[in-house]
Amino acid sequence: MIRIGIVRGGEQRYEQSLKSGAYLLRSLPRDTYSLVDIFVDRSGTWHIGGLPASHQKIANAVDVIWNTIGGEHARIFEVLGIPVLGHATVHAALASDHSLMMNRLFDAGIRTPRSFTISWTYGNADEVAEAVALTFRTFAPPWNVRAISLGRANPNAIRCATRDELAAVFAEMANAGVPVFIEEVIMGRKLAILTIPGFRTQNVYASLPLDVRNPERRPVGEKNTDLAALAAQAHLAAGIGSYAQVHLAITPRGQAVVLGVEIEPLLHEDSIGHHALGHVGSSIPEFFEHLLRIQRGE
């Protein structure tokens, strides 16, 4: 049997990764696969069967890895030569840089939120006041503000609803000399679509659009074929080779705006991916078999 290492834990999304890993361990059939539970604690120590294990021991224990901890350890798998289901190391930077992702979508002609970047020269009160005035003139509140570290816009945004809130965030960033990426907040219904390359004979398969707040129910009133085409376009524009999750907003005027492409979406009972597969009569085992074929180049 194929030995599948389910890697969970880590530092960046510990609780969600544990939940996702447990879900995969329950969902994959043990009469078909040999499942190896690989736990990474918050300090970065790896474990198999509850005992600390070296990277080489892990490499000898598995044939393929399903990584739920994100890109923080992707390089280790690559160095050890362990095949990984999902995204290559090169996509780790894209997953952690919101502005790079949004620029790719914009360059492909996809409607995205308006945005711009501010870098600080002096970081004083006058410069902060000018930045606040510029933001207020560019688009109405609320605003999403993201710190830019090492040239990358953090995927986690700070929501500012008033001018005073914006000024406080800008002042903190300016004092630390941290540039910021400002993005308008799109009001409207928030949807998400699971995208899978090559699934069910499609170049990029797009699931039914699901309401982010209520993914167990199918949304009504949307043109699913149009949204599916948009999601597939966004997936291709992002330039990624494995599954992803496209986030959209439907404005009160009925326009679809792509809010981003999530490269490493987690899978668990409450996730968009779980419900997306269920709505089309698929399952984690079928999904895994497809990912395995992609990894093998079939």
Walk me through this protein's architecture.
- The protein folds into three domains: 2-85, Rossmann fold, CATH 3.40.50; 93-109 and 187-296, ATP-grasp fold, B domain (D-amino Acid Aminotransferase, Chain A, domain 1); 115-184, ATP-grasp fold, A domain (Dna Ligase, domain 1), CATH 3.30.1490.
- It is 37% helix and 26% strand.
- It is built from ten helices and 16 strands.
- It has helices at residues 14-27, 55-61, 74-80, 90-96, 98-107, 125-138, 163-176, 224-238, 272-279, 284-296; strands at 2-9, 33-40, 46-48, 51-52, 64-67, 84-85, 115-118, 143-149, 152-153, 158-160, 180-184, 189-197, 204-206, 210-211, 244-250, 256-262.
- A six-stranded mixed beta sheet has the order 4-3-2-1-5-6, with helices on both faces.
